[in-house]
Amino acid sequence: MRAMMVAKRxxxxxxxxxxxxxxxxxxxxxxxxxxxxxxxxPYIRCFWGTLYPLPDVRERRLSIVTPDTxxxxxxxxxxxANTLSCSFCGINDHTFQxxxxxxxxxxxxxxxxxxxxxxxxxxxxxxxxxENQFLPAEAWFAPVTRALAPHLFDFHTLRELxxxxxEALLASMHTPGDIRLLHSAMHRMITSNGTxxxxxxxxxxxxSTRRLERIFHRYVGMTPKKIATLIRYQxxxxxxxxxxxxxxxxxxxxxxxxxxxxxxxxFCRFHTMTPRDARAYALSQFYNTxx
Length: 291
Description:
Layout: H1 2-16, E1 32-34, E2 44-49, E3 54-55, E4 63-65, E5 71-78, E6 83-89, E7 96-98, E8 106-114, E9 134-136, H2 138-148, H3 158-172, H4 179-191, H5 198-204, H6 209-219, H7 224-242, H8 248-254, H9 260-271, H10 275-283
Antiparallel strand pairs: 1-2, 2-8, 3-8, 4-7, 5-6, 5-8, 6-9
Helix pairs in contact: 1-4, 2-3, 4-6, 7-10
């Protein structure tokens, strides 16, 4: 009965929690998102990348990458140099800037973005030590990378690659025995907006805090306390971006901050700007038009 409840929660988490990037409305030839098939929707936040191969030109403005609690497998095909790279971007807790090399090569990018509770379902090894790291994807996702890599130069559009990735992901998906504890604890984190303490979560799950820490390190690569903090930050970001009448004092109460200063300090630590500025950045014309 408990296993059935946990499975149901796992299939519902994506309907309760939808993390945002710093520019969630960005849709262009350089960056577009596609939703996964229904079977993968509880696990894959999206597929993203270039719509088709494009010249690698330096952007007019650097783009910031903020902690969205997700993990990515990123394929980059260089048609000019005839090279292919495949990286795994682990869960991160800091903001950094990204920019194109600007070498003029014909490039296509394709990526798979996992929800924080899902990457382990497709990985062949523990995710411990992957926090804030760019690593060879082959070391953790060999079945997926081997299925896709030979076709990266043959399949040119994002939609074609997404369909191929769905087949590979469904074929490689597995359920480690004790990952149910992770999914149950993550569900509680989300429904509490990241305010439930690790001690409280362990009590809810009838386990020890030490075991909970081990499970999160193995299947996410980050401590439960840090993930809970990121979930709370993401919920504030979502409210700030999506609701024009966002009120910071309401957010302080809703998300359990001590006061406004506490909220701003934590938000700026992850986003490098205030919620108001984050909304303006997300809605800026630069990120709403083809470029």
